[in-house]
Amino acid sequence: MKFQNVFKNRVFIGSVLFTAFLYLCEEFLFGFPQSIFFQTIFVYRPFDEQLVAILSGIASVALCFWFVWLSLSIPRKFQIIPISFVVLSSLIQYGFWKAVGRFMSSVDLQIAGATPLETWTGASALYFNWQFLVPIIGFIIILSIFSEQKQKSIVVKQSIFLFLSLIGVCYIYTFTNKTLSIGASLPSFYQTIVHFGFEKIQSSARTEVKFQASNKPSNNIVLIIDESIRGDHLSINGYSRDTTPFLSQLSQEDDIFQNWGLAVAGATCSHPSNALILTGVRPGIDDFELTQTYPTIFQYAKAMGYETYYLDAQTNSIWNGLNASDFENINVWVKASELGDDIESDFRAADRIAEILSNSTGKFIVLNKRGVHFLYEGSYPPTYEIWSPIPTDYYSQPELVSNPYDNGIHYNVDAFFEHLLLDKSILQNTVILYTADHGQTLFEDNATWLHCNYTPMEATVPMLMIGKGLPIVKTENYIASHSNILPTLLDLMNVPPDERKVTYAPSLFSSSLNSSNHHYFLDGGLNVIEFPKSK
Ligand SMILES: [Zn+2]
């Protein structure tokens, strides 16, 4: 085929048209995401990342182009396959865009299986929009006008090109360790699925914690990881509404209560955030992949002779960066189905914790709380409504979003602690460390997503410690972060310094604390974002 003939080729023209249409259409639909991305990367990022961005950008366009070329060249009866792919890609990618302001990442795919169904059904109805149909209709029109069935040999050749451009994208992705979301919805959907596959194939083993303490532990330790609790909406942190009266009262008892105020989450999405907490991996300093190889807190607890419990009020499956072999170090795993999976789940978990702790020592418990998740009015019984009205539409009434959220905190955080500490004698030999996986936007500053993105309010979480005889430390001027949690737990367990397998952030008890450190968190695409200093 002569070069000039390419332009007379209907399939070529159709492929160029749809690729251009998709990129332009998404630029206008979503506020110029690609242009802004490239502008930002050339101003703020180092040269190697700029290079990766350019190469990924080119590979993404090629991927999209060959996908359309192949779709136009196959017999009509098989075109239902690429059409289905475009429908799936559009609905999922634009749903994610509307929900979190970006396309789906491989981390989202991992979480997808573990998220309670009601969250998805609630979200998908909220996030659908007629604009999502535009590229689908465009694709069908292009197919009906420009299709031209090619010989088998040509189709095979085109498939190889498609495969090569896909490998190109994945090569850049996997071997540079840069998880840049580049390209229109379609190629980025392709990349995400393949990237997810790569991650599944890469096997990893955790660093072993081999030693065994000779003495039995003399305390109990409880780590509570709440869901979607923004630190500045607790009255103990100075919030104007009295959302946490019980905790405020408890905070008067200086010797049992330490409040670190507003702390920085490791990530704004649940899955990576939990993975960072349980392994002590430091965002912005360590690679996120280390969450698969660093020892978990359960390994240390077992080595120190603790009986270990994992209570999950959210899911019935393995997630949070843990894998099946991690459960060898967990003696008792209590799943959401056992805790009832409704607004009382966390209260039942509190009962269970109180039961485990009564008259015993040497227990290490992690609770993944159900918390206050969207839609917030589903997090408390109607009789506990203090602040109203409740928005009928979260998008058009952003000023009302705090009402159900604060009701949720008052019930699900404050009344939860009141319930857990009905018998305060458990605090004699128990330390409770409390935080949340991430914050929420509450639709402030024109945000149209909940979390999993880049704003500081999504990374603002509470950090509390409750227990008798805690070391006296100054909490006021220190910005704590999730990275401090694992080393603090190691201190509480008395893990010898020589047995700490990797380099961690300082413990909250450490005397070398200072506020000059930078704090970083990861957005849903695992990009590193710096948290602004505020204290
Ligand atoms: Zn979460």
Q: What is the topological layout?
A:
Elements: H1 10-29, H2 33-44, H3 47-73, H4 80-100, H5 106-112, H6 117-127, H7 133-146, H8 152-176, H9 185-201, E1 220-226, H10 245-251, E2 257-264, H11 270-279, H12 297-303, E3 307-312, E4 332-334, H13 336-339, H14 345-357, E5 363-368, H15 402-420, E6 430-436, E7 460-466, H16 485-493, E8 519-522, E9 528-531
Parallel strand pairs: 1-5, 1-6, 3-4, 3-5
Antiparallel strand pairs: 2-7, 6-7, 8-9
Bound molecules: zinc ion.
Describe the structure concisely:
The protein has 535 residues and is of the alpha/beta class. It has helices at 10-29, 33-44, 47-73, 80-100, 106-112, 117-127, 133-146, 152-176, 185-201, 245-251, 270-279, 297-303, 336-339, 345-357, 402-420, 485-493, and strands at residues 220-226, 257-264, 307-312, 332-334, 363-368, 430-436, 460-466, 519-522, 528-531.
Overall description:
- With 535 residues, the chain is α/β, with parallel strands linked by helices.
- It has two domains: 3-201, no CATH class; 220-526, 3-Layer(aba) Sandwich (Alkaline Phosphatase, subunit A), CATH 3.40.720.10.
- Helix content is 42%, strand content 10%.
- It has 16 helices and nine strands.
- The strands form two sheets. Strands 2-7-6-1-5-3-4 form a seven-stranded mixed β-sheet, with helices on both faces. Strands 8-9 form a two-stranded antiparallel sheet.
- A hairpin with a 5-residue loop joins strand 8 (519-522) and strand 9.
- The chain is elongated and about 85 Å long.
- The N and C termini lie far apart (67 Å).
- 45% of the residues are buried.
- The model has no long low-confidence stretch (mean pLDDT 87).
- The structure holds zinc ion.
